[in-house]
Design brief:
Layout lengths: L3 H11 L8 H6 L5 E10 L5 E12 L5 E8 L4 H17 L5 E8 L7 H15 L8 E5 L5 H16 L27 H20 L7 E5 L3 H12 L3 E7 L2 E4 L6 H11 L7 E2 L2 E2 L5 E3 L1 H4 L6 E4 L18 E3 L8 H9 L3 E3 L1 H4 L2 H15 L5 H26 L3 H20 L3
Parallel strand pairs: 3-4, 3-5, 6-7, 6-12, 12-13, 13-14
Antiparallel strand pairs: 1-2, 2-4, 7-8, 8-11, 9-10
The structure holds nicotinamide-adenine-dinucleotide.
Length: 429
């Protein structure tokens, strides 16, 4: 496995020539501001104590408090955390929200824990890292294998600490310290669909730029989880033709364009997307066919949307991609080697730090609502998100045209310039 931090630094270095900054300032961006590594001890159900390695990485705070998820995964490691916290800095800067980048994690296989052990682990993480978190300091969120319930336990733990004699900050709303909370605890309306919705806005913008007619524009989506489903739903609502989708168990091809809601209902009933072919209000075996999962990536469609896993388009299969445009909805679904192959073939790639930034943007909306005591309706959240995604897409597109560079490089140039501007103005050199 290539070191993700080395990849992240290489990506940063690749845009240096488009950025006017003294070398020392630019180089500061390669190193996180803080690496916090702790051992946390948790009581297991059988009475024994187990120790876990846990991290919080704070990459850059020039534009605002650190922002980024906490993941629970056996492969969590420092290099990955360094890379992901850096990516969060760029993602927040691309969509121009006032946050820097952070990331956290615990080296653990959460499937090996009972519900009670998972709760104790989550609480213990917050107990240990609470001094580093705060609404104006560092705002965590869910990530791989963490969810709204885990945020709720962490919030509860934070409030307990805040109320105890070891006060963290008197004047701070604890609800604004974490995002991705349940709606009942200050979570935002629209957060569930936000990432997929943001991606569908990117699709609309691409169609405009490439002058594609929506009803003839075919879309294949790898992954039909939270992001993939909502992407399909909003793309379909906007008049695009979603002809293929997959999950970990199989893929379907529905040439007339699928009904995502009925497809999801069928998937829930049968435990897999395979065999569910629904067009309009009818589901029928004659309306489609099942594909091998890998074949979805090779379909002759206009738009390919990897929304499942990191590295799913790699040098082994990139040559077979026939789509003209790839919208990256998963994090890093196209490896750097595959990126080169696709670019040589003239494939337009919309990078993850732009196309899946709807999630963190809605986290910013959640934070803003918590700080002001407001609660916005879903339509308001999605309208605000639409504006952010359209503005950010246009900004990246302009940088790409001005410098004659691909969209990934353009997104990096835009983000890195914004971060460096903030650093310069703050005089942190
Ligand atoms: P999820 O767990 O809800 O869904 C993942 C989907 O991918 C599932 O349908 C699963 O069956 C499918 N899948 C797994 N392996 C597959 C394979 N080999 N082939 C095809 N499908 C496969 O996760 P999610 O929240 O939808 O996130 C998807 C990706 O988007 C992840 O990379 C995540 O990091 C990224 N992302 C998510 C958000 C968010 O707000 N949820 C925000 C930014 C980025």
């Amino acid at each position: 496995m290539p070191d993700p931090y080395i990849n992240a630094v290489a990506q940063l270095d690749s845009v240096k020539k488009y950025i006017d900054a003294p070398g020392n300032l630019f180089d500061q961006l390669k190193t996180p501001e803080h690496i916090i590594r702790k051992s946390i001890s948790v009581q297991m159900d059988n009475g024994s104590k187990k120790t876990f390695v846990a991290f919080r990485l704070q990459h850059n705070s020039a534009r605002g408090p650190y922002k980024g998820g906490i993941r629970f995964h056996p492969q969590v490691n420092e290099a990955e955390m360094k890379a992901l916290s850096m990516l969060m800095t760029w993602k927040c800067a691309v969509v121009d929200i006032p946050f820097g980048g952070g990331k956290g994690g615990i080296v653990v296989d959460p499937k090996s824990l009972s519900e009670k052990e998972l709760e104790r682990l989550s609480r213990s993480y917050m107990k240990t890292f609470a001094p580093y978190f705060g609404a104006w300091k560092d705002i965590p969120a869910p990530d791989v294998n963490t969810n709204a319930q885990i945020m709720a336990w962490m919030l509860d733990e934070y409030i307990k600490i805040q109320n105890s004699k070891f006060k963290i900050q008197d004047d701070e709303s604890p609800y604004a310290v974490l995002t991705g909370k349940p709606v009942e605890l200050g979570g935002s309306q629209g957060r569930e669909e936000a990432t997929g919705f943001g991606g569908a806005i990117v699709l609309e913008q691409i169609a405009k730029k490439l002058k594609l007619k929506r009803q003839y524009t075919t879309v294949a989506i790898q992954g039909f989880g939270n992001v993939g489903y909502w992407f399909a739903y909003f793309a379909d609502q906007a008049g695009f033709k979603v002809v293929a989708a997959s999950d970990s168990k199989g893929a379907i091809f529905v040439p007339k364009g699928m009904n995502p809601e009925l497809t999801l209902a069928g998937k829930k009933e049968q435990g897999t997307i395979a065999g569910n072919y629904c067009v309009g209000s009818v589901c029928d075996v004659k309306l489609g066919k099942t594909l091998a999962e890998e074949d979805l990536l090779q379909l002759k469609v206009d738009i390919l949307v990897p929304a499942a896993l990191e590295g799913s388009i790699h040098k082994g299969n990139a040559g077979k991609v026939q789509a003209r445009t790839v919208i990256e909805m998963a994090n890093a679904p196209v490896t750097p080697e595959a990126d080169v192959v696709l670019q040589k073939k003239g494939v337009l790639i919309v990078p993850d730090i732009l196309s899946n930034a709807g999630g963190v943007t809605t986290s910013y909306f959640e934070w803003s609502q918590n700080l002001s005591g407001a609660s916005w309706k879903k339509e308001v959240v999605l309208q605000k998100l639409r504006e952010v995604m359209e503005t950010s897409f246009d900004a990246v597109w302009s940088v790409s045209k001005e410098n004659n560079i691909d969209l990934r490089s353009a997104a990096y140039v835009l983000a890195v310039r914004r971060v460096l501007d903030a650093m310069r103005l703050r005089g942190t050199q």
